[in-house]
Design goal:
This protein has 494 residues and is mainly alpha-helical. It has 19 helices and two strands. It has a two-stranded antiparallel ribbon. The termini are far apart.
């Protein structure tokens, strides 16, 4: 068993430490070029897509609900622990490179979400299903490869992810109540997790979308508000923190856990954290995007792109500023190149909570505990929705979804009381394998996404010229001159 754990861990580190970094960066750069920097040219379109995303679902899943599901997965515990680790290993300059990666990732997110919409299929109950499995099967005409993606992604998100996130929830509860009058141990915590998750998971994709629509934006807003209070009450330290970020990005004091790592470590750790935090190119948000009911695929591409910006430019930056401000006010909380030492992972696990507590007071212990709980909870919901989309691709048998839901709940219970080092690594390997398949798919199908974008731009030009109304912008695939070929299916034929 120990040998298996070692092999899986080594494979996980290789995938996420080397292979995927270069693949994701390369794909982001290529798609930025292919779309002519859609993320910069269409910032206004991204904002308009978000503003009008709650309507037009026609009994299905709205564009905003699909966005919220993706946001629920993007904004997770990695935004708290992962950013802290990036600061420990790469110094303040790592944050700048997170921003750079977010800009590249926005083009990737646009492309995969647009493809998820373009190649989606109708379920017959007013909802749709789409994502990497569908556009690999229907766009690349590789149904077996689509099936491989669906299997690995379903296992990782539907079974492994509930285990590891439930473990995070029970650990947070145990830590917060250990010294209190009422102690919530792993077993009681695990039962509580199942009780919270079950009503939503058993309700299926519509239920998950409704829950995510409420939880994900509120969760992100509450955390940003908490950090905003820190910034407003420590303006001098906030300005100093921004200076540290900019100087550290190109300077020689980024630090590597007490060793002079310099700009190299700032780049490497910022890039790594940015790539895996925003999830652009990993395939999950494309599953959410393909479920939405929209008039034009590009609209969902725009709104899913907004999720990358929220995750990295807002939430990750907020975490970094909270830590850097606390460090400026109290050098014992965080000092670049010193904090962490040989135990970077352990320090990163509590650094954000320590930083917020040092600036706002001990009363923040429970709000931060609740935040971690909600982050993990929403990640379970979002990840499971991806699993259901993949299951729908594999089979339409009516007994399959209930079996998967019960399995996810069982895994959540076990995860709450078990040590999951190997499960974490296994989930990473499966997600990494799925990401490689997805990246190949979106790069090879990028001409379809750019064709959709050109169609949308042509219709928007007519709106600006006054020859078309804004609400009449609609995608029709039949006879579309911007597409590289005939689109399979009839979802967009009318």
């Amino acid at each position: 068993m120990e040998i298996i754990s070692t092999v899986v861990s080594t494979l996980s580190n290789w995938l996420f430490g080397t292979v995927l970094i270069w693949l994701l960066l390369g794909a982001g750069a290529f798609l930025t070029w292919r779309t002519r920097a859609v993320q910069l040219r269409h910032l206004g379109s991204i904002a308009r897509a978000v503003a009008g995303s709650r309507s037009g679902a026609a009994g299905g899943i709205s564009s905003f609900q699909a966005f919220a599901v993706g946001l629920a997965c993007r904004v997770g515990t990695g935004n708290i622990v992962g950013v802290a680790l990036a600061l420990i290993l790469g110094g303040p300059g790592a944050v700048f490179w997170m921003w750079v990666v977010a800009l590249l990732g926005t083009a990737t997110a646009f492309t995969e979400a647009t493809l998820g919409q373009l190649f989606k299929v109708e379920r017959g109950d007013g909802t749709f299903r789409g994502g990497p499995a569908h556009y690999i099967a229907r766009g690349l005409r590789r149904p077996v490869l689509g099936g491989v993606f669906a299997v690995v992604f379903m296992i990782a998100n539907g079974l492994a992810m509930p285990m590891v996130q439930a473990n995070a929830m029970t650990a947070a509860l145990d830590g917060a109540t250990r010294d209190g009058a009422v102690e919530v141990g792993p077993w009681w915590g695990s039962l509580l997790v199942v009780a919270l998750v079950a009503p939503v998971l058993l309700g299926g994709l519509r239920s998950i979308a409704r829950a995510a629509e409420l939880i994900a934006p509120l969760m992100a807003a509450a955390y940003l508000a908490l950090v905003a209070v820190i910034i407003l009450t420590h303006p001098a330290q906030a300005l100093a923190a921004l200076g540290q970020i900019l100087s550290g990005a190109f300077g020689l004091r980024a630090g590597l856990a007490g060793v002079a790592g310099g700009v190299t470590q700032a780049v490497l750790n910022g890039v790594r954290r940015g790539l895996f935090s925003n999830e652009a190119g990993l395939g999950g948000s494309a599953c959410a995007a393909g479920s939405a009911t929209v008039a034009h695929p590009a609209r969902q591409g725009f709104i899913q792109s907004f999720g990358v910006l929220v995750d990295t430019l807002l939430v990750c930056t907020a975490t970094a500023l909270a830590i850097l401000i606390a460090g400026a006010a109290d050098g014992g909380v965080y000092t670049p190149g010193v904090t962490g030492g040989q135990d970077a992972d352990a320090v990163a696990g509590t650094l954000t909570q320590t930083a917020i507590g040092s600036t706002l007071g001990a009363w923040t212990t429970w709000p931060m505990t609740v935040l971690v709980l909600v982050l993990a909870y929403s990640t379970i919901l979002g990840a499971f929705s991806y699993a259901e989309v993949c299951l729908d691709y594999l089979t339409r048998r009516p007994w399959a979804p209930p079996v998967l839901r019960v399995g996810a709940l069982a895994c959540a219970f076990v995860g709450g009381v078990a040590k999951l080092t190997t499960v974490w690594s296994t989930a990473d390997v499966l997600l990494g394998a799925g990401a490689i398949i997805n990246l190949v798919g979106i790069v090879m199908l990028s001409r379809w996404a750019t064709g959709v974008l050109r169609d949308w731009e042509a219709q928007r030009a007519e709106v600006m010229a006054g020859t078309r109304t804004a609400d009449s912008v609609r995608f029709v695939a039949t006879g579309n001159p911007y597409l590289p070929g005939r689109l399979p299916g009839d979802v967009w034929s009318r």
